[in-house]
Inverse folding.
């Protein structure tokens, strides 16, 4: 297994659980990436949220399937969870430490600190993520015969909780769903218009490569890029006020910036949806225009970093195998899945299939009616000429036999079918599910 991120750790765990000896290679700390700060496995470099937990949501369904497959990361996440309404969010330092401890303690996993700069011999899972080292990226390009595509992902700033002006905001979850785990920073119409004007005219960090500004995944669009689409765009995106009532006024604010807890201690908060590539001095200036954040202490400012991924539809099978060299598996964001859990889930399945191949058994494709099966089928068979990263979503699943007009009931039915089909699949293939 090459890469000690979310996908690589799940791949190592999935393979080792089936009784296979695993070497897990991680180049940090000898060679650090532009985004990582520690030598811990499964370090989270962007948000600390793994998305919704409800099984009748696409992210929640994916998590439920991962639990059925024996996910290590979800076990660790449960032990490191911090309040986030209906979402699963973790204390990032505690989470990485827990994953590192479990991996290093497993008798069938050998953690090797060092860089892999070529495709290793034998059965291998490449899960080096969006920050694959240049030498290995070149080796992958040579192996696949394709130029690696790329996009640029943005991370949101983190502020200290004590520096937020609690008198200028309120705690609530949208529509009152779940505990009041989000701190909401309201803006009046005049405050919003001033903020929007300054945001759209703020200076961004210089591009590292030509064309960088055109290679941003839509779901991680920098806040300033969204704002430039028009004065109303943010009001229907990260600053939308719907479902929120300011208890001080009894009215819905004109706009709202939400903050989410970043750690278990509650000392840090993440600016939800504020991925950015503004210059650091501009971030402090513009984001301090939000009344509740006028005196905010930023412990991490937004950053922009290169993300690399292959054109999976031309290269991969739904099993994760490279079509031209089936002993090689790819997993994680490198394959064009987007999101923490999507990356981890693809790694888990690639690890299971790599173990099956090592034991002389046939690698398997999951039912396309499951969320993970549908996601892997999409990235390996997408007909799009402009292949882009994909999150888990209900649009990937085959339609139900009976049409259901109500969206909530339809999603619930899709989830019920997925879990039923996953259960039947695991019953058929004994040994895949944890006992």
């Amino acid at each position: 297994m090459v890469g000690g991120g979310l996908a690589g750790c799940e791949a190592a765990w999935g393979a080792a659980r089936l009784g296979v000896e695993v070497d897990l290679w991680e180049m940090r700390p000898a060679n650090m990436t532009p985004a990582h700060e520690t030598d811990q496995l499964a370090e989270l470099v962007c948000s600390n949220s793994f998305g919704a937990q409800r099984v009748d949501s696409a992210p929640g369904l994916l998590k439920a399937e991962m639990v059925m497959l024996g996910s290590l990361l979800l076990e660790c996440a449960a032990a490191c969870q911090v309040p986030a309404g209906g979402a699963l969010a973790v204390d990032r330092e505690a989470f990485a430490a827990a994953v590192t401890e479990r991996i290093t303690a497993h008798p069938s996993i050998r953690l090797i600190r060092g860089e892999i700069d070529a495709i290793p011999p034998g059965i291998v899972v490449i899960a080096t993520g969006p920050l694959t080292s240049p030498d290995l990226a070149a080796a992958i390009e040579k192996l696949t015969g394709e130029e690696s595509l790329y996009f640029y992902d943005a991370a949101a700033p983190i502020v200290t909780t004590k520096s937020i002006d609690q008198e200028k905001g309120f705690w609530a979850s949208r529509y009152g769903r779940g505990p009041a785990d989000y701190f909401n920073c309201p803006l009046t119409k005049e405050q919003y218009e001033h903020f929007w004007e300054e945001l759209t005219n703020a200076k961004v960090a210089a591009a590292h490569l030509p064309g960088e500004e055109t290679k941003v995944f839509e779901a991680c669009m920098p806040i300033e890029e969204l704002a430039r689409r028009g004065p109303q765009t943010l009001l229907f995106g990260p600053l939308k006020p719907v479902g929120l009532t300011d208890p001080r006024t009894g009215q819905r604010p004109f706009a709202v910036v939400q903050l989410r807890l970043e750690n278990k201690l509650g000392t840090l908060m993440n600016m939800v949806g504020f991925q950015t590539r503004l210059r650091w001095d501009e971030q402090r200036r513009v984001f301090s225009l939000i009344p509740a954040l006028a005196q905010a202490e930023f412990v991490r400012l937004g950053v922009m970093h290169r993300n690399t991924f292959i054109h999976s539809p031309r290269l991969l099978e739904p099993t994760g195998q490279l079509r031209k060299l089936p002993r090689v598996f790819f997993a994680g964001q490198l394959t064009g899945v987007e999101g923490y859990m999507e990356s981890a889930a693809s790694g888990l399945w690639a690890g299971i299939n790599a173990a099956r191949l090592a034991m002389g058994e046939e690698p398997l494709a999951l039912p396309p009616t499951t969320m993970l099966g549908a996601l892997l089928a999409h990235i390996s068979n997408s007909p799009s000429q402009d292949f882009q990263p994909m999150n888990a979503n209900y649009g990937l699943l085959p339609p139900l036999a009976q049409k259901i007009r109500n969206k909530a009931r339809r999603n619930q039915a899709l989830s019920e079918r997925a879990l039923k089909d996953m259960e039947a699949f695991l019953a058929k293939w004994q040994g895949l599910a944890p006992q």
